[in-house]
Amino acid sequence: MNSKKKVLISGVSIAGPTLGFWLAKYGFEVTIVERSKSLRLGGQNLDVRRAGRAVVRMMGIEKEILAANTGELGLQFVNRNNEVEAEFPAEGNDSFTSEAEILRGDLVNILYDCTKNDVKYVFGKYITAIHQDSDKVEVTFSDNHSEWFHLLIAADGVRSTTRKIIFGNEPELKFVGLYNAWYTIPRIERDTQWARWYTAQGSRVMVLRPDNHGTIRASFSFLSDDEKFLSQSDSEQKKVLKDKLSGAGWEEDRLMKEIDDNNEVYFDGISQVKAPRWFDGRTGMIGDAAYCPTPLTGMGTTLAMVGAYLLAGELYRHDKHEDAFAAYEKRMRPFVEKVQKLPPGVPWLAHPKSKLGVTIVNKAAALLASRPVKMIGKLLSSKEKDVTKDDIELPVFE
């Protein structure tokens, strides 16, 4: 079924190579194009949860992912004196630190290594125009070269340029009122193997997380409804970050210095992608490009990998791409919509404005981390600890 059909995927991150893996396995001729000149190996922690674990297990890379674990012991809530207010060890399927906690770059490397012999990778190019008819999609690249494919799938992230070419402004980027900056900083003596979460008044949060490369992955987030920061230059955004960090306490000086010294500060407004449709003719999108749930859900990687597996399977199962796309959306959209529903009060409850609010957050964390509450939680939770169990069926397509 559908073997030797040519498929172009835009984006070498998580969804793109996963889709490429399964399409190549089912006999498709796959090309993945990436704007960067090489693999982009930066980024923060990802975790592969539940149905995502089932997918990587079927791909034969679960052991590699677990072996590349960041080594994080769990999460500690700390005060401005770096004293621990609450502690959540890395245990349980829904803990802050998962068993399959891995750096984005490490996961990208694993996916590339397991697909590079079966998928054609093209780096340093991107799509500038498409023209499709009933038989094919003609794609023009940034070097003015044109080539035709049977299908084109965008998997190039929440701010996908390929999505813009296909769908224009139809998909909505729903800003949730939260900005976040991520960057890698040198490890120092007071850092440990615990992730440390610090809440500062003024609706600000800092998180420092250890990695398995001898450095620390830092993030700084703050609440704001002002969307103008998104369109500012790098220097303007760094000024915003320093203004927002000022007076926060704890590791403020350390993070402030790194904003000036670090060339890889990633700053963005946290947004969800809401798209009324994921496909148009012979083109479509998956992963964050189609249905980014935000990092607040902890399910972005799982959505990307599950979506890639299911789309490849439906394309293999159906002779007509229209039928495959329809079957995929019927199966995937309810799962996406459930994941995208943020809990009440997110992200505002975790970013209190007042000193009293900070105290309440830390006290609430301490209560949740207390032994009696943990024991009650274990009694009420299911005895079944199936990391593959989720609210979506993963059929076997072969």
TrEMBL record:
Top-level taxon: Bacteria
A Pfam cross-reference name: FAD_binding_3
Species of origin: Chryseobacterium vrystaatense
Swiss-Prot/TrEMBL keywords: Monooxygenase, Oxidoreductase
Listed SUPFAM superfamilies: FAD/NAD(P)-binding domain (SSF51905)
Entry-linked InterPro entries: FAD-bd, FAD/NAD-bd_sf, FAD_aromatic-hydroxylase
Protein name: FAD-binding monooxygenase
Start and end residues of each FAD-binding domain: 6-339
GO terms assigned for molecular function: monooxygenase activity
